Amino acid sequence: MRALTSTGLVGAMLALVGCSRPGVVIIGGGPAGLAAAIEAASPSWPTDIYEAQKELGGSAVYGDAVTAIPSPTALARLDAASGHANPARTRFVERVGPDVVDWLRDMGQGWRPVENRIEPDVALLTPDGKGASLIAHLVAAAKAKGVNFHLGSKVTGLVRGTDTVTVTLASGSVKARAVIIATGGFAGNLDRVRQRLGLGADVPLLRGATSFSDGNGIDLGVAVGGAERLPSQVLLYAHGVPDTDHPGAALMFMDGDRGWPIDSIGAPFNDMRSPRGDSGIALLGRPGSSGWIVLDRATLDDVKLWSVDLRDFVPGRIAGQAVGVHGDSAEDLARRIHIAPEALTAGLFLAPARPDAEHPLGRGRLIALPLRLTTAKSLTGLQIDLDGHLLDANSVILPHLYAAGEAAGFAHPWEAQHIDSTMVSGAILTGRAAGRAVARDLSTP
Ligand SMILES: Cc1cc2nc3c(=O)[nH]c(=O)nc-3n(C[C@H](O)[C@H](O)[C@H](O)COP(=O)(O)OP(=O)(O)OC[C@H]3O[C@@H](n4cnc5c(N)ncnc54)[C@H](O)[C@@H]3O)c2cc1C
């Protein structure tokens, strides 16, 4: 175990020998856990974050932390699309914008707008310095509040007592008056995704999320009586190309305008990365649950594919060499990937989705990269109320227990099917709610 602060080190040692006062334990040091810690911390009790990895930030340090702020028009559109008003979603989304962005701005985090090509009525903002900067600001704020950090410390069990919860770690156990489960989602756990979606081992599936997003914290919450809500909600995209260096993982092809995407029988699909996961559903409905993106050599040299495991982009030509199928002409390639030549050449006559994109076919040697269903996000988790209290199957509050962030299903604001990229904001918002509730509950005699 490594502690970041000297007070943290002392606190951890005392806690592990059972001498410390029971305080607040937060499991997981991603954006939800950090935000919860900032709100829960008080001089009246110790507040400790236990993080399984060697660094703080969870999945947020991997991405741009783009934050979506839907307009009232967008909310009305979502209501119309689903056929009913969703006041809870509206309330949630209204709080996300000013709350999360302004809260971080007050900590010194700058923001800039990002063009939203898919949903123009949803404003997108990205933090200057991306997710890593946002995490650095949250860590600084948590340190200033006296939060203790324990890195490389995985929580393996929870046991409810009358007034406390016993938290088990490899190095011993600690007692807490309040425990917040902020362990992230489960999209990195392919077995769990298969089981939740009822997919057999014959469906080709790749991991597009961090491997530590394995759902273990959801199991910790269920083991102490918590309920898991809507367990079959997982977003699948069709943009994964097998990563030969990391078996089971995806290299993600992000730019859907730079090739001709077709499924395994040659039918086209327009957006491999639909905000509703439509492309994943489209592939699931076809034999093989796989497809191809066809590029020419020049485009392959140009594109880069995102690797979660490397935290970096991989040049397209490396993926092309490793897993690409090469053909001298459209007809030759069609034969090699077992589709009708017309299916491939059909792409020659279609206008590209983006005006500045050139259609790749017809410019010499072609390469087809195999596209596989790729797990992106789990949209569900532990059932909580608006204050982050963990609920059982009858929606009764389980005392001393809370959950936040993706572990509580807040990858999306409550069944919003069209708004993407709202996860860091949802994590922070629900983390803050849980942290505030803990502070309130512990202050109430
Ligand atoms: C490549 C990539 C790009 C992304 N881009 C965006 C984006 O642009 N915009 C956006 O909003 N979101 C984005 N996300 C998603 C966003 O990062 C997550 O939704 C967010 O980080 C979830 O926060 P969290 O705190 O709930 O969980 P996490 O960030 O997953 O943190 C959970 C933490 O808990 C720890 N943990 C798990 N189990 C235990 C245990 N038993 N004991 C101790 N610690 C444990 C984990 O190690 C992890 O550090 C992206 C994610 C990825 C991978």
Task: Write structural notes for this entry.
The protein has 445 residues and is an alpha+beta fold. The protein folds into 2 domains: 1-233 and 379-445, FAD/NAD(P)-binding domain (3-Layer(bba) Sandwich), CATH 3.50.50.60; 236-373, Succinate dehydrogenase/fumarate reductase flavoprotein, catalytic domain (Flavocytochrome C3, Chain A, domain 1). Helices cover 31% and strands 25% of the residues. The protein has 13 helices and 21 strands. It has helices at residues 6-16, 31-40, 72-82, 87-106, 130-144, 190-197, 216-223, 278-284, 297-302, 316-323, 330-336, 341-345, 423-443, and strands spanning 2-3, 23-27, 47-51, 67-70, 111-114, 122-127, 148-151, 155-160, 165-169, 172-181, 205-207, 234-242, 250-252, 260-263, 290-296, 304-307, 312-315, 325-327, 366-378, 389-391, 397-403. Strands 1, 2, 3, 7, 8, 9, 10, 20 and 21 form a 9-stranded mixed sheet that branches. Strand 8 (155-160) and strand 9 (165-169) form a beta hairpin. The longest helix is centred in the last third of the chain and has 21 residues, at 423-443. Mean pLDDT is 87; it is low at 1-19. The structure holds flavin-adenine dinucleotide. Flavin-adenine dinucleotide binds next to helix 2, strand 3, helix 7 and helix 13.
